[in-house]
Every structure is written in structure tokens, then in C-alpha cells.
Design goal:
- This protein is α+β, with helices and mostly antiparallel strands and 1011 residues long.
- The chain has 36 helices and 18 strands.
- Among the domains are: 85 residues; 117 residues; 175 residues, no CATH class; 81 residues; 154 residues, Jelly Rolls (Sandwich), CATH 2.60.120.
- Helix 32 packs across helix 33.
- It is globular.
- The two termini are 36 Å apart.
């Protein structure tokens, strides 16, 4: 093959063009002169001190004073340090501080590294100095006065500014009035409205994350309906793909991932229902108050609802230290640290997400900048004091959920009654009864066994027999196998007896591939005809030295029960040449499994507990039970026997009723973990919360005052501590926090969410630090607009779709993204919205766009995530090998929101395009332009494969080379090529092929950028 040098060169050129086109305007049009001072009075506390705190204190603060100069102490700041006076009140032009921050002397730029001050910030400093450099004596006290900080003030609803007749004709809704007022204040003006082809592409990607088709584009451009734009907005908001698009933004914020993180980055196979919940919540336009409450306490506030359980995946969305929890007990220091950090993540996720404050900064000391004392932080930890991260079972049907809960409660009561009756029986039966009980125990529990032999693996229940089920054992390495022994279960329930669940048809296979797709060996095949049930007599399958790592038993025809069908097995033993059971306590996976320990669990399959060939059989056990019953009949009085029989009968009835219910679902969520071993949560303590103490400098070895559950005292209109009487269920704490967050008097919640939505539509938030509304964050550029949006959202039904509609139908949103060099000198970052920000597509939109244009995008919604990797060493510390994945696998050609998210090893193509790191709380993604992106877009296997399918799709449309290039433009760019584009691409196609031309088109700026 000829090298694709022209293609590489063309893409490199495209990328360089992309790089320069996307540099901020203030980087391409700098002025050598000082930025002009602001033309209004400047407030030191609200506007100047935050600039010093964010940009100067690290070198000129309380811990470090370069040149003996400080900007956190008035006397030193105004007097100056070793280099002399830096601030000359009344004369900013000659003040050295202004020269430093403006970079007039390249050798003395301040800050020396990191982000430079913007022209607006320098203008504020200049105005403050020119106005006399007023520095209140009580600045420190004022800083601690939370009511004076903008984000903590009560929410107001200011009236939109009045507009002149000229401006009123431009404005389309109240948003535009606020924007125009600020533009007039800055001597700026809005850009013209973008053309329709730009607007439809912008709307499609913003609202559903997919491009429009050529036909949709043409129809919109030709539509003369004056409400065509608004109707398009409504159609997109009604699309099910809207929820997929906006769920991806939300999952960034809450750092949702599907592996634990840390060193043993094990998969979370049941995390996906939370992702589906978020998609469903957005699509159904769930009121925001309920969306918040469900994620913190849906099980308490909305019991017996699917959303109320699946939403709890929010609490467990972040990383989890497997070793610190599962391998280290809570009594050890490392165990205490792990659980402390776990609660810290829950607190940070909650307050960052819903309140946009950095409360986690207060775990070692009172917050340095915001009015958040340590006690507030640990009171928030107390809210989650009983919660761990674990798989939580639930039912899809609310009627079934209520029935299961009722039956389970009755079961616990009856089990307690049976224990009491058993104690009375033993007193009456005497030594003979005790001896019989011992014999029964010995028959049913071999020496050293922890569980009875009839316990084992149990598949999900099916309504018909011809459903395939499988269970497999992972030996950890390839082992020489001499024979395999399988043993059926024994169950007294409903006179089923021996062989419960043993399949009617089955096969047993060996392989070194966990998927059993290659080099597998069948060692037993009973799939062609029904086989007799062996009861509990072990079946031995000779292998004679075949080597394998994985052994799988597949049931192709299930065993009947009363009205349904299952696959169950007590034990699967794998014997090597020395007759050792190498399967003992090995890893077990299955297509599905009813996990109801101790009776049913995958782990029971390899626990080494089963009736041996020479052990007691069902007849022996039945004889012992008959002798025991006869003794009871002689020993018990009528009343005791009646009580015993009634309890046993009712227990059997409830167990039967529970068995008939559909198998429950599971979601990885915040829940009380009733487990065993080191990671047992608080289950052994009936779910009562742990005691939470204020830790001196965050040290678990130095606990101080114990605190109860609460929230933030800085929100003075609400009570900061929750009055929850002792003994209440732990969920009441979470419910109290959920109510506190969604109280209409809490200004943080409503400002936070409208700012997030604004960010994703305009590319920059009104507050450009969406997770930090404190003093180290940015100030709002349009505080009145932010409050107007927040108040109307809070009081107007809390519909996110209505909020989207309001924003995207504004004239502000419809502006073109063209740059005005004069305006760029004043506001290079476009903080005041004098044009639309030019944005590159995010990683998911690029990947989905590739699949969409190639004709390979599968739009199936929901369900378990697809895995675009191969797992190596799954039993210990999994390695996620993306390079071994086949990008042509149809299972992975779904929307990127359904991609399995790994924390430790992220997908290289998506990472190159600034995909969010699921280990971090990502309030807004980076937008970088790098050579690595050009290489990924050109050479990644996904790009190569999808370009091939794109070319095949184009070729199927027919025509000559010019027709094919035209078709490719229509499919990818929603337009026809211009003559100067068509001619060189036709020549290129004839020389290098249609597939390479399609790769060029997929790498164009026009495809990779929103507009």
C-alpha cells in the first residue's frame, strides 16, 4: 500500500488551523497598553479581595511573603515590601502592582506562573486604586460575614432592565434584557444572529448530542413558519436522546464510574441503573426538587418506587477503596481512614453538586475562605454515618416491592418465634432430642463446613425451560484437570428433595478465554436429549489432563419447579492429578444469579461443601427426622406442638411466597451493608449510624467532640442542625438533608443548577467556577440575571426543559460566534456574551458522530453498559486493555453515554478529546487543542474503522467519484461541497481511495466543532 502522507499532512494542517482558530480572542489580539480602568465604583470586599486571594496569596499571603510583601494585610500592602511601594492610591497608571499584573515588564510578571489576570480584573484593580485604594479596617470581619457574600444572600427576583425601542426589537425574552444592560455598561454590543444552518447544528448538539441530517437541515432552512425555531426546540426536547445528552453532563458532575478506582479497580456490574435513572429523569422532566431528594433519600421519601432506589446510585457514584473496606476491618486505623475518606467523598459530591461549595476543605480546620466551620463538615458526615457502597436489591413492580417487604418482615418475626419455640422444645425433649439434633447436624454439615450441603448456586427464575443459563469457575491460571465432579442440591421445600434445580440438558466446557469464544473444549455434552436427575449423587466427568483456566457448565434446558424453571447446583469440584480440588474458593461468575446468602450464592458452588459419595443420603436424613418427630410427639404437650407446627407451617408458606416473586434487580448504591467479614458496614448493629467526631486536623486518631447530623450554618434562613430523635432509621438523616437542600429558602441550590445549565449552553457559566460559589471562586458576571433565572426556576415548576427552552430561544443564544477585535480587547473571554462562544464537540459527541455518519450507530436505550476493552487478571487487580478491543464489535456501537466507565485506565481516544475523568468531580471539561487530538482523530482504530463504514455507506448511494464526495459532504457536514472543495477531494479520492477521503472529512474543523 502507498503511504497516506497527503492525508496525514492534510489532517495536520486541519488541526493547526483548528488550534489557531480556537485560541481565545485575548491571546490573538493583545494590546501593549494597560487595560482601561472600570467606569464604576468598585467594592474592595466583593471585587478586589477575591482577586488577591485567588491570584496573589500563595506568594504574598500569611504563609509566604516574597520580597517581604503581603496583600492580605492592609498596612503591608499599602506600605510596600523590599521592592518599595506597589500601590499608589489615586494613580493606578504609575502603581507598580498594575505594571506587574499587566505584564508590562516580561521579567516581572505577576503571578509568575499559572493563569494571568484578565483585562477586566486589571481594570477593576485600576479603578479601585484610582478611587483611593479604599481598604476597610474591618475587612477580615466583613469577609466572615456570610450574609454579605453574594451566593449566600437570600434569593431575590429582580425585574429585567428596561430596554429602548431599538434594543427591545432585538430581545426575544427577559434573558436578553439582562445581557443587553451589561453590554451597554461595558460599551459592547451583541453579534448578529447566526444563520439557520448554524443554529440547527447548535441546537441538535446542545439538546440531543447528535448532528442533524442533511434533509432535516434543508427543511429547517426552507421553513418559513415564524415559529419554526421554537418548534424545532420543542421537538428536540421531546426526543428520548435529550435525556441521554444531558445525563452525560450530570454524570460528569457527580463523578459516576463503573469501577471502584484505587489500586484494585474492580468492576461495578450494577452501577448502570443509576445512569438509566438520570436519563429517565431528564426525559420525563422530573421536577428538580424531586430529582435532588430521590438521589439522597429516595428509599425514605418515595418508598416502593424504582426511581427512589436507583437514584441512590448518586451516593455511591465516586471511587471506593476495596482494600480499605473489604480487607481492613473498621477497628484498624487504616480502616477508619478508608471510611472517613469514603464519607468525605459522599459529602463533597453532595454539596459540590447541589450547592456549589467546597465544604470538604473544612475536614482539617475551619474553611480558610468561606464561612464553613469544621463542625458543619462533620455534621454532614454524620448524615452518611450508616451508609456504605454496595449492591442494593429492589423490585421493578411497586406491588411486588411492598409484598416482598411485608413477607420479609413476617419472616423475621416467625424466625424469632421459632427460635423461642425451639428453646422450649429442647428443654422438654431432653438429652435424646439433643442427640438426634447432633446426628442431624452431622449428617447435614460435614466437619469444618460452614454451610449445609444443600446450599448452592441458583439462577434467575424463568417462565419457560428453553432458556440458556451458565455458571463458570475461574481457576486463576491454566491448570491440568483430571476430572470434574458436579453435585446436585437438596431442598425440603415443597417435597422437591434431592436434585433440586439440576438441569434436564446441559454441557460442560473448558477454555482459557473467559468469554468461551475461542479454543474451547467440550468435556460433557448432554444437550441432545433429556438426562435423569442424579439427586445428590455426585456425577464425575473424566477429563484426563486437559488444561484450562475456566470451567463452564451451561444449562440448555432448565429444571422444572411448580410453575417455572431454574438451574441450581450445590458444588462444582475440579480435581487435578493429585486429586486436589483446585476449584475450592475460586472465582465464580454466571449469566445471572439469585444472591440470597447463606442459602443461595455463587460462592457456595466452590465452598467444598457437598454430600460425598459415601456420605449420608436423603433416606438417612429422612429417617433421622422421623425419629426426631416421634420423640417430639411423645415429649411435647399439645399447646407447644401446635405452636411449633403453626410456626413451621407459616414459615414454609412465606418462603414459598417469596420464592414465587420475580427475582429482584440490583443497583450499586448508598445503602446499609448487611455483609460479613471486615466489610460488614453497620449491618450487625441494626443499621445504626456510626458515631462521628470532629477530628483534630482531620486525624482519625484524634477524635474530639461528637456531632449529630446537620448542614451549613452559613445559610442563615435555615436550621443548620437536624432534630432527629435517637433510634430513628438512618434514612431520616438523609431525608433531612434532602429537604434542607430543596428548601425554597436555600439560595445555593437554585443558583447552582441554573448556572450549570447556562454553562453547557453557552460554554461558560454566569459563575465560571460551577463547583465553587465561595470566595475562591469567580464572581457572577450577571448576578441579577443569575438570581432572576434561579428564582423563576424555583417558583415556576422547576422544569429543566422549560429552563432549556428559555435559554436557547433567547437572542443571546442565537448570536453568531464571529469575533469583533475591538470588543475582544475589552472582553477577550466573552464573559459578557457579546457573541456566541465557539465550542469543539466533546468526546462523546465526536464518537457518536463518527458512528452516526458511518451508519453504525445503534440507538437502543438503557441496560448494562458496553465494554470497549478486554479485562486481564479479573480476579485480582483488573487490567482494562483497550488495545485488544475490536471497534467493529456491534455490541459497542451504541451511544457513548452507555460506555462502561473505568477509573484507573481510561479509554485513550476519549481521553485525548478531554473526556471527563470519572475519579474527579468535573464541573466543566477542559477544551484543549493538541497535536495528540489530531493523531487520535486520524489514526485511532475507531476512526479508521468508521471511515471504512462511512465509505461503504457512500458507495452504496452510487454515482461517480464527484457524486460520492458530494454524498459524503451531505452525510457528514449537512451541505454540498463548494467547487474549490470538490475538485481536490475528487482527485484525492481517485489516488488514495474513498475510505481515506472519508477520514479527511471526519477530521475537518467543520465536523469537530459545534459552529
Amino acid at each position: 500500500m502507498r503511504p497516506n502522507l497527503p492525508l496525514a499532512c492534510l489532517v495536520a494542517l486541519v488541526t493547526l488551523t483548528c488550534t489557531f482558530a480556537c485560541l481565545p480572542a485575548d491571546e490573538t489580539a493583545k494590546s501593549p497598553a494597560l487595560p482601561p480602568p472600570a467606569r464604576r465604583p468598585v467594592d474592595f470586599i466583593k471585587e478586589i479581595q477575591p482577586i488577591f486571594a485567588r491570584n496573589c496569596y500563595r506568594c504574598h499571603g500569611d504563609k509566604k511573603q516574597k520580597s517581604s510583601y503581603r496583600l492580605d494585610v492592609k498596612a503591608v500592602a499599602l506600605k510596600g515590601g523590599d521592592i518599595g511601594r506597589a500601590i499608589i492610591p489615586g494613580n493606578s497608571a504609575d502603581s507598580p502592582l498594575i505594571h506587574y499584573v499587566a505584564g508590562l515588564n516580561p521579567d516581572q510578571q505577576m503571578p509568575p506562573s499559572g493563569t494571568r489576570l484578565t483585562a477586566e480584573q486589571i481594570g477593576l484593580l485600576r479603578a479601585w486604586i484610582d478611587q483611593g485604594a479604599t481598604w476597610p479596617e474591618t475587612a477580615a470581619d466583613t469577609q466572615r460575614d456570610q450574609q454579605k457574600w453574594w451566593s449566600l444572600r437570600p434569593l431575590s427576583c429582580p425585574l429585567p432592565p428596561k430596554l429602548s425601542a431599538t434594543n427591545a426589537s432585538w430581545a426575544r425574552n427577559p434573558i436578553d434584557a439582562f445581557i443587553l444592560a451589561k453590554l451597554r455598561e461595558k460599551d459592547l454590543a451583541p453579534a448578529p444572529e447566526a444563520e439557520r444552518r448554524t443554529l440547527i447544528r447548535r441546537l441538535y448538539f446542545d439538546l440531543i448530542g447528535l448532528p442533524p441530517t442533511f434533509e432535516e437541515n434543508e427543511a429547517f432552512v426552507a421553513d418559513r413558519d415564524p415559529l419554526a425555531y421554537e418548534k424545532l426546540v420543542d421537538r428536540l426536547l421531546d426526543s428520548p436522546h435529550y435525556g441521554e445528552r444531558w445525563a452525560r453532563h450530570w454524570l460528569d458532575v457527580v463523578h459516576f464510574g463503573e469501577t471502584h478506582g484505587y489500586d484494585k479497580d474492580k468492576p461495578r456490574l450494577h452501577a448502570w441503573p443509576y445512569r438509566d435513572y438520570v436519563i429517565r429523569a431528564f426525559n420525563t422532566d422530573k421536577p428538580y426538587w424531586r430529582f435532588v431528594q430521590e438521589q439522597l433519600a429516595g428509599d425514605v421519601l418515595f418508598p416502593d418506587t424504582v426511581d427512589g432506589v436507583e437514584a441512590l446510585g448518586f451516593i455511591a457514584a465516586g471511587p471506593w477503596d476495596f482494600i480499605g473496606h473489604a480487607e481492613v476491618p473498621e477497628t484498624k486505623i487504616d480502616g477508619k481512614v478508608a471510611r472517613h475518606l469514603d464519607r468525605d467523598d459522599m459529602v463533597a459530591n453532595t454539596i459540590n453538586t447541589f450547592s456549589s461549595l467546597t465544604v470538604h476543605c473544612a475536614q482539617c480546620h475551619n474553611h480558610k475562605f468561606d464561612p464553613i466551620p469544621q463542625e458543619d463538615y462533620y455534621s454532614l458526615q454524620a448524615v452518611f454515618a450508616a451508609v456504605d457502597r454496595a449492591d442494593k436489591t429492589y423490585d421493578l413492580d411497586s406491588v411486588v416491592a411492598r409484598e416482598r417487604r411485608t413477607l420479609t418482615a413476617h419472616l423475621r418475626d416467625l424466625e424469632q418465634q421459632k427460635k423461642e419455640v425451639d428453646r422450649r422444645i429442647k428443654r422438654l425433649g431432653g438429652q435424646k432430642l439433643a442427640n438426634l439434633d447432633r446426628e442431624l447436624a452431622e449428617a447435614a454439615r460435614p466437619a469444618g463446613a460452614g454451610q449445609r450441603p444443600e446450599f448452592g448456586y441458583h439462577s434467575a427464575i424463568e417462565g419457560e425451560p428453553n432458556r440458556v443459563k451458565w455458571v463458570q469457575v475461574d481457576l486463576g491460571r491454566s491448570v491440568s484437570i483430571q476430572k470434574i465432579v458436579i453435585t446436585g442440591c437438596y431442598d425440603d421445600f415443597n417435597q422437591i428433595g434431592a436434585g433440586f434445580g439440576f438441569p434436564v440438558r446441559y454441557k460442560i466446557e473448558l477454555a482459557d478465554d473467559p468469554e468461551f469464544k475461542s479454543r474451547k473444549q467440550i468435556v460433557a455434552d448432554h444437550t441432545g436429549a433429556d438426562v435423569a436427575n442424579p439427586g445428590t449423587v455426585p456425577r464425575v466427568i473424566p477429563v484426563h489432563g486437559g488444561a484450562a483456566r475456566y470451567v463452564r457448565m451451561t444449562a440448555t434446558k432448565l429444571a422444572p419447579r411448580v410453575h417455572d424453571y431454574i438451574f441450581a447446583l450445590a458444588e462444582l469440584s475440579i480435581l487435578d492429578g493429585a486429586d486436589r480440588n483446585v476449584a475450592l474458593h475460586a472465582g465464580v461468575t454466571a449469566l445471572d444469579s439469585i444472591e440470597a446468602p447463606p442459602r443461595w450464592a455463587k460462592a457456595n458452588l466452590v465452598d467444598g461443601i457437598a454430600f460425598g459419595q459415601n456420605g449420608p443420603g436423603p433416606a438417612d436424613i429422612s429417617s433421622l427426622k422421623a425419629r426426631r418427630q416421634a420423640l417430639l410427639d411423645r415429649a411435647l404437650d399439645g399447646r407447644t406442638k401446635y405452636e411449633f407446627d403453626e410456626v413451621v407451617k407459616r414459615l414454609a408458606e412465606i418462603q414459598r411466597d417469596l420464592a414465587r416473586l420475580p427475582a429482584p434487580m440490583q443497583v450499586y448504591a448508598g445503602t446499609v451493608h448487611y455483609g460479613s467479614g471486615a466489610f460488614r458496614g453497620m449491618g450487625a448493629n441494626a443499621g445504626r449510624p456510626r458515631a462521628i467526631h470532629i477530628l483534630l486536623r482531620g486525624d482519625v486518631k484524634k477524635p474530639g467532640k461528637e456531632v449529630g447530623p446537620g448542614a451549613l450554618s452559613a445559610v442563615t434562613d435555615l436550621r443548620a442542625r437536624f432534630d432527629i430523635p435517637p433510634g430513628q432509621p438512618e434514612g431520616e438523616r438523609r431525608a433531612a438533608l434532602a429537604r434542607w437542600l430543596t428548601d425554597r429558602k436555600n439560595p445555593l441550590t437554585w443558583r447552582s443548577i441554573v448556572n450549570r445549565v447556562w454553562l453547557y449552553h453557552f460554554g461558560r457559566g454566569i459563575v465560571d467556577t460551577p463547583n465553587d460559589f465561595g470566595r475562591m471562586g469567580q464572581l457572577p458576571t450577571h448576578p441579577e440575571l443569575l438570581d432572576w433565572l434561579a428564582a423563576n426556576f424555583r417558583d415556576g415548576g422547576q422544569s429543566l426543559k422549560q429552563l432549556h427552552r428559555l435559554m436557547v430561544t433567547s437572542a443571546t443564544y442565537r448570536q453568531a460566534s464571529t469575533v469583533n477585535p475591538e470588543f475582544a480587547l475589552v472582553d477577550g473571554g466573552n464573559a459578557y456574551c457579546w457573541r456566541m462562544n465557539r465550542r469543539r464537540l466533546d468526546a462523546e459527541a465526536v464518537r457518536d458522530g463518527f458512528l452516526f455518519v458511518s451508519g453504525k450507530l445503534n440507538l437502543a436505550m438503557g441496560g448494562p453498559s458496553f465494554q470497549d476493552f478486554v479485562i486481564d487478571k479479573p480476579e485480582h487487580s483488573p487490567h482494562y486493555e483497550y488495545g485488544l478491543h475490536d471497534p467493529d464489535d456491534p455490541k459497542t456501537q451504541r451511544r457513548s453515554v452507555y460506555r462502561f466507565l473505568v477509573r484507573s485506565q481510561q479509554e485513550p481516544f476519549m481521553t485525548a478529546l478531554d473526556c471527563a475523568d470519572p475519579s474527579m468531580l468535573v464541573d466543566k471539561r477542559n477544551q484543549t487543542i493538541t497535536p495528540l487530538q489530531a493523531l487520535a482523530l486520524l489514526n485511532d482504530q475507531l476512526s479508521v474503522v468508521m471511515a471504512k463504514h462511512f465509505a461503504e455507506r457512500v458507495a452504496r448511494a452510487g454515482g461517480d467519484t464527484a457524486d460520492q464526495v458530494t454524498t459524503a459532504f451531505r452525510l457528514a457536514l449537512d451541505r454540498l461541497p463548494k467547487p474549490d472543495e470538490l475538485s481536490p477531494l475528487v482527485a484525492y479520492t481517485k489516488q488514495y481511495g474513498l475510505s481515506n477521503t472519508c477520514r479527511v472529512i471526519l477530521n475537518l474543523n467543520e465536523f469537530i466543532f459545534v459552529d
